[in-house]
Input
Amino acid sequence: MTALHDMTVAALANELRAKKISAAEVAQHFLARSQADTSGAFLSFNPEATLAQAKEADAQLAAGTAGPLAGVPMAHKDIFVTTDFPTTAGSKMLEGYRSPFDATVVRKLGVQAGGAGMVNVGKLNCDEFAMGSSNENSAYKPVTNPWDTSRVPGGSSGGSSAAVAARLVPAATGTDTGGSIRQPASFCSITGIKPTYGRASRYGMIAYASSLDQAGPMARTAEDCALMLSAMCGPDLDRDSTSLDVPAENFARDLNASLDGLRIGIPKEFFGEGLAPGVRTAVDAALKEYEKLGAKLVPISLPRTELSIPVYYIIAPAEASSNLSRFDGVKFGHRTKDYTDLVSMYKRSRAEGFGEEVKRRIMTGAYVLSHGYYDAYYLQAQKIRRMISDDFQQAFQVCDVIAGPVAPTVAWKLGEKTHDPVANYLADIFTLPASLAGLPGMSVPAGFGEEGMPVGLQLIGNYFKEAQLLNAAHCLQQATDFHLRQPGGAK
Amino acid sequence: MSTKQKSLLVQGYEVVIGFETHAQLSTQSKIFSRAPTAFGAEPNTQACAVDLALPGTLPVMNKGAVERAIELGLAVGAHIAEQSIFARKNYFYPDLPKGYQISQFEIPVVQGGEVSFFVGDEKKTVRLVRAHLEEDAGKSLHEDFIGQSGIDLNRAGTPLLEIVTEPDIRSSDEAVAYAKELHKIVTWIGICDGNMQEGSFRCDANVSVRKPGAELGTRREIKNLNSFKFIQQAIDFEVRWQIEQIEDGHAIQQATVLFDPDTGETRSMRTKEDAADYRYFPDPDLPPLVIGRDWVARVQSEMTELPRVMAARFVTDYGLPEYDATTLTQSKAMAAYFEAAAKACGQAKLVSNWVMGEMSRRLNASEVGIENAPVSVAQLAAMIGRIADNTISNSAAKQVFDALWTEGGEVDAIIEAKGLKQMNDTGALEAIIDEVLAANPKNVEEFRAGNSKALNGLVGPIMKASKGKANPAQVNELLLKKLQA
Output
């Protein structure tokens, strides 16, 4: 029999449902693997809670009341608040914080009544408040990439991508604000999808940039992503006003649909000078596969791709500067020990509790919203954001999905860009446009580029076309084996 | 605007006042959470995760608060915006859990409108700029802790409607009259309990002075006035202070000031230089508030009759003078009492006289609301019925009313027990009249000489001699007949 940790979510769910294995023994296995990990992927464990959840899943399986993924282990990015585990958002500000409620996504995936029945193994490392693309902004520790431990796993969902790639857990949640699911998935050769903005409830997801944040699954296969995404989505109108009143779907329904005649738009702006040759070669090869599967490649243009960088780095910090105001040392979170009055308490608590990148974005955000600058920055950025959305709608007139690289390069070395925030920002260029437009996007393993490091193919769909994206990804995975390759670091 | 140009100048200065009123909306739960809004609970027991701004929480609009805003808009004849926007007003304060207040900034839900009222006998109309929805902050408790402050977040997230006027108000009297009228409207339509002590209805007054015809002067904003008396006192003090400053050659600095009821003075809290940059921007957690015309129509159809509409109806349906109709519609309870009694006895004008007269005097003296009046609608209607059918005179009715008020009971039984039945026996009355005429030859002479007032000197003694039982109309009639004979 295949080792438990080599099994997919779908396979584990089947075995559990057939009662060939118990949720408790599966949980023990993955817990042991995860706790032995040295990559820095996990921030916290609570074995007692994990095993209690597994026991509950077993009871539901025995009683026939189990959800579709009952007993399958997973782990949550530490941005989702959980009652069973501390939630830190990767920040010292929330060290030891315990939420009195579970995020909607946590509830929907978990063993609570009506949930999918998955068992939470622990909380996964991430960039502080999801700000970053290398996981080096975690206040606790960096995460190493299982394909090369001298390299970053991507970010901000770097703990999620490293844990899934190293088979510590079969799947994880991530959040994507400007590429934080797709880019780490690409860097670690796993599959990840960010749904249409508003599909998954943001309730209980610690906010970075409210108008962009979306939760999504990260797993090894498109099928696993589809199974999890089906459980994660659905209206949550009583808790999240940006939640869409669109019923949950079975996103796995079209996985095997034929790609014959599928029009894949190839934006010329995604294949310019900055693209690493190795990445380009891998992406081109994946596109060839699609042609073999009957798809047609259509040249398109997304003319404002470059503008998405300044637009994003105005809007996201603006929202963040306000979202993070609640961390003031008054009610919860870090409060300095050394203060003389209210203002010094605010200043020192925040100076001590937040890391460099978070402070940088708060400062940037406060600046672009301030009197006299608002029109020139924030308002202008919102206008261009609308144009970027319009560009996509124009493109979708002539194609069904859009494909290109997730990132211009493969994973870089730890420390390589630490002191150059702008270099970090520029690396987000291909993931930002879909985020700004609120479109679903995903990363699918597409081979290997420079230094043998993984390359992801990005697929972007129109609103609510997640099932179509997953279909395209699944078909590629039926034709290739990149998603099955194991990093050397994984035993 | 008033048509009569009564001079309102103070020492040659024109007073210019604009109002911002925070009306706490009467919803059961908060504006963006499901926590209750009850007043006076133990600190921090009425605040849920959303009110505490715990990580991961998000606001969800309370439809009840929106409906109340729509009701106000309809009551003041304003435009209800098809789409309005919630913004974040960013500032740090311990009783502001999120570090920003959710409020409406650029596009408010209620736009325009006006409030009309009487100042004395002069009608005045104040134009409204807007009314917008926002959340209240919590409270800092500085007294109970030595060297520290406590925070009570029970009030955090309580729904408020901030109602803003144009600078149309010209005196403290007008300001009080406006505030009372607005208070009447919000309590009448039931969107606010109007409790000023508990802070459910609090006013900020923007006050400036200028020479007539000059540009608007620099204003100072008096914050949080929570009684009509304080509104009057604070504005009067502020106006005197500003004029004094200007006369002494000092320029007025834009400032926010507080009124101290103990000293009767206003003092500066912060000047414009300290004004924070609130970094307003649309709240990305809340989509635009969309109000379809069908929603407005539904709210309108379910709305109670407005005071001005009801007053007009009282004039048409009951033939009341406008003054009576306006007075009776000062409160919903009074209007309801009047209408029920008028319907029960069919004597609208008599009911109006009694409700505005004896009833109001007794209610005021005993500080009781009409809804708790010791004399019920049925009792008053029965008593007025006996006036109308000439069983008792008006003066006898006063005794009946007093008995009803102090002891209760049944109207006819009281009339019987007190022997108040009117004397309708012409013979007995004529005898009394003859007696009185004989005893007052001087009055008789004067009347015959053309002084009609002399009649009053005769009616009084006749009524007295009949122990109040004579029918005044009959007395008049008989008296005239005898005098002119």
In short: Confidence is low (pLDDT under 50) at residues 1-5 of chain B. Chain B has three domains: 14-298, 305-418, 426-484. The longest helix of chain B spans residues 228-247. Residues 415 and 421 of chain B are 6 Å apart (CA to CA).
